[in-house]
Design brief:
Layout (H helix, E strand, L loop, with lengths): L2 H30 L21 H19 L25 H60 L5 H5 L15 H32 L3 H14 L3 H18 L11 H25 L3 H9 L4 H29 L3 H6 L18 H10 L3 H29 L6
């Protein structure tokens, strides 16, 4: 058979296939109802339904803010000024109800967007936009108390911040001409937190390494069970435990002052009970996220297990571990109940955490609030928030330095 005879049927077959594709595309275009027949290159199906223009969302946001301001400013009973708390007979002067304005605005935005989306976009795209709007609204509702707290702390506490307030102690607080401050509380918070972190961080990390890399059997299950229980223990119970344990130990060692002994170190023991299980749980979860393939690759190269844990497992999960440690520090640095019965309170500087009473910032805020010095109370709260913020920034910087190159 000649070349002409062999190629003829193939060419005619190709033309027939092209015509069949065109007819199928035309039929598909008519069935979908999407305009003229499609070309032979394949069907092009356009999306159905209308979508909201981009500017509609911004108009709704502006309308929601207007509604929030209109109704929020008239719901002033939610935000009484601090100056009226100690004097019930004084005429109330209300501050900006930021939380109330935000709640009104978020609820208005969600409701209006739901109605507009269903009326304009239909069931399919409207349902998608409704889900997105509800999720965004829930996030904003959860964020509003934090924003309101920060705003109120800055608004009420900024006037109290000064160099003398940060460096003086509280001796002579009843005398108007004496400058007082919370310098002694900052020092006490530093010592107590440092002692707590120095003990809780290595203890928590080593416990997590044992549970993930070595722990098997009933003992490991018992440790996990105890860690879960300690995670939910009330803070006041931790303080009572520290007092009872150290008093008993010092009594056994022959210290006559054991029943009356209180110090910053005792407060650190109480906070140690609260901080350790948080570090254990977070570190354990971070270590479990490390792929087993990385461990097996290290073992295949002849690296011993302990060096694999140090160089591979911990190095891979260091960013998450540091973040968890910072969360644990922020958890205990604001505790006041256990410190009231362990470290107690004092009006003077104490640079020895193992001897005598020691003031901390949470206890200082409570004491000044109880005595009616609300300006100093808000100032202490603002300083405490700032310290936690600095810890978070340092932790992010350190985590970025030691994280693997692909995660930076």
């Amino acid at each position: 058979m000649s070349d002409t005879d062999s190629t003829g049927p193939v060419g005619s077959g190709g033309a027939a296939n092209e015509q069949l594709t065109t007819n199928a595309g035309a039929a598909l275009g008519k069935r979908v109802g999407d305009g003229p027949p499609v070309p032979s290159g394949g069907p092009s199906i356009r999306s159905h339904g209308r979508r909201l223009p981009w500017w509609v969302q911004w108009v709704v946001i502006a309308f929601a803010l207007a509604v929030g301001i209109f109704f929020g400013m008239r719901t002033d009973t939610f935000a009484p000024a601090v100056e009226t708390w100690s004097d019930p007979d004084r005429e109330a002067q209300y501050s900006l109800p930021l939380l109330t304005i935000g709640l009104y605005a978020v609820v208005t935005y969600v409701l209006v967007m739901i109605v507009v989306a269903y009326l304009y976009e239909g069931r399919r795209y409207g349902g998608d936009r409704v889900a997105t709007t509800v999720i965004t609204g829930a996030f904003l509702v959860a964020l509003l108390p934090l924003i309101s707290l920060l705003w109120t702390s800055v608004q009420q506490g900024w006037e109290a911040i000064s160099w003398s307030f940060l460096t003086h102690n509280n001796v002579g607080a009843s005398v108007e001409t004496v400058e007082t401050g919370l310098g002694h509380a900052i020092v006490g918070t530093f010592y107590v937190t440092l002692l707590t972190a120095a003990a809780a961080i290595p203890l928590g990390i080593f416990t997590a390494i044992y549970l993930v890399e070595y722990g098997k059997g009933p003992f490991a299950r018992a440790v996990t069970f105890l860690v879960d229980i300690m995670t939910g223990i009330p803070s006041i119970v931790a303080g009572l435990f520290a007092v009872a344990m150290l008093t008993m130990i010092m009594g056994q060692l022959g210290f006559d002052s054991a029943p009356a002994y209180r110090s910053g170190a005792m407060g650190a023991v109480a906070l140690l009970v609260l901080m350790t299980p948080i570090v254990v749980r977070n570190t354990e979860e971070m270590l479990r996220l490390v792929p087993n393939e990385l461990r097996e690759a290290s073992y295949a190269l002849g690296v011993p297990k302990w060096l694999t844990i140090v160089k591979v497992v911990l190095r891979t999960s260091v960013a998450g571990i540091i973040s968890g440690v910072v969360i644990a520090v922020a958890r205990v640095i604001g505790e006041s109940a256990p410190l009231m019965i362990t470290a107690m309170s004092t009006d003077v500087f104490n640079y020895n955490p193992f001897d005598n009473y020691m003031m901390t910032l949470p206890v200082y805020v409570y004491n000044t609030f109880r005595t009616g010095d609300f300006e100093a109370s808000w100032g202490g709260a603002l300083v405490l928030i700032f310290i936690v913020l600095v810890f978070n920034l340092i932790a992010r910087f350190v985590a970025a330095m030691f994280a693997p190159k692909g995660e930076k």
